[in-house]
UniProtKB/TrEMBL annotation:
One Pfam match: Flagellar_put
Keyword annotations: Cell projection, Cilium, Flagellum
Organism: Caldicellulosiruptor hydrothermalis (strain DSM 18901 / VKM B-2411 / 108)
UniProt name for this protein: Flagellar operon protein
């Protein structure tokens, strides 16, 4: 009976056990910075539909842009331009509202934007 309870310990993974080791420096700095930035369902769908990969470096840059916008007193949505991508980010809620590929921006109008940041 006791042997059955410790069967999984000899394998590479310890199934059923939770590590008590605290997270070390395995997370990148950009990952830590972006931990407070959320992605809306709409933006998540846009990312998938347009096959855009939102990596940790980009999330870190968006987080920095958010901080700069807050320092300038912006409080609502801002347009963040990063290369060939455009992001609408809500500063108050720290949410990426939508993402667009710059090639698809022709004839689009953005309204209710507090500012534009280029990163």
């Amino acid at each position: 009976m006791i042997v059955n309870n410790i069967r999984g310990i000899t394998g590479g993974k310890h199934e059923g056990f939770v590590s008590t080791t605290p997270k070390q420096a395995t997370e990148s700095f950009a990952g830590i910075l972006s931990s407070s930035l959320k992605i809306s369902k709409h933006a998540s769908e846009r990312l998938k539909f347009q096959n855009i990969n939102l990596d940790e470096a980009t999330l870190g840059k968006l987080e920095e842009a958010l901080k700069k916008a807050e320092q300038k007193g912006l409080k609502n949505d801002v347009l963040v331009l990063d290369g060939d991508r455009a992001y609408i980010v809500n500063i108050k809620n720290k949410v990426i509202v939508t993402v667009k590929d710059m090639s698809s921006l022709k004839d689009n109008i953005f309204t209710n934007i507090d500012g534009v940041l280029m990163i």
